[in-house]
Amino acid sequence: MELVLKILETLDITLLAVLQMGLVVALAVILSVTLVRPVLATFRERENLSVKPLEEAKRLVGDAAAKTRQYDDSLRKAAAEALARKRARMEESARAERKEIEIVLEDTNRQIDTMKGQITAEKEAAARALRIEVAGLSREIAGKILGRRVT
Questions:
Q1: Across the chain, what does the average pLDDT equal?
Q2: From the CB of residue 116, how many other CB atoms can be counted at a distance below 10 Å?
Q3: 39 CB contacts (<8 Å, ≥6 apart)?
Q4: 102 found inside a domain
Q5: How many Cα atoms occupy the beta-carbon half-sphere of 97 within 13 Å?
Q6: Any residues with CB less than 8 A from the CB of 105 and at least 6 apart, and which?
Q7: Are the C-beta atoms of residues 86 and 98 closer than 8 Å to each other?
Q8: Is residue 21 part of a domain?
Q9: pTM
Q10: How many angstroms separate the Cα of 112 from the Cα of each of 49, 69, 82, 102?
Q11: Domains in the chain, number
């Protein structure tokens, strides 16, 4: 202990300076426990809240695309069966049924295009909403950290 005191005396370091250094370390530990760790936890939570909905939206878009492919496949199968039945009928009735199939296919394609447009619009709306929410949450977190309102 005497050696430490002699070293401090030689370096012209007072006990007040050592006490101040100890206080700085203690305050750093307290700040870390009370502010930094909760803020980091909040950041992780916010990331989970923003990433998971995007992943869910991507999954839903993939599901919709798979259902669209299934629907297209079933339409193609139905059209092939209808064509096979039509060959057995008279030529005139075959032409009339082909026209009906073309109308149905056009309507289906329009419906598919409409669904794809709706899916794209929902995806964009979800992305916009998430961007807005992330921006708001970022300002809120920054405001809490800085202790003042952030614009």
A1: 86
A2: 14
A3: 141, 144, 145
A4: yes
A5: 17
A6: 75, 79
A7: yes
A8: yes
A9: 0.32
A10: 31, 10, 21, 15
A11: 1
- Residue whose structure tokens are 């419906």: 111
The answer to the question of residue 59 being in a domain is: yes
CA-to-CA distance for 116 and 61, rounded, in angstroms?
9
Helix (H, G, I), strand (E, B) or coil at 145: helix
The DSSP secondary-structure symbol of 39 reads H
How many Cα atoms sit within 13 Å of 53 on the Cβ side?
Answer: 17
User: How far apart, in whole angstroms, are the C-alpha atoms of residue 144 and residue 41?
Assistant: 14
The Cα–Cα gap between 28 and 137 comes to 26
pLDDT at 129: 93
Cα distances from 70 to residues 9, 46, 66, 109, in angstroms, run: 85, 37, 6, 14
Domain ranges, residue 21: 2-146
87: which 2 tokens?
A: 């060959």
- 132: in domain: yes
- Answer yes or no: is pLDDT of 27 > 90: yes
Q: Phi-psi bin for 79: left (phi > 0), alpha (psi -120 to 50), beta?
A: alpha
pLDDT in tens, 88-114: 676 787 778 889 999 999 999 999 999
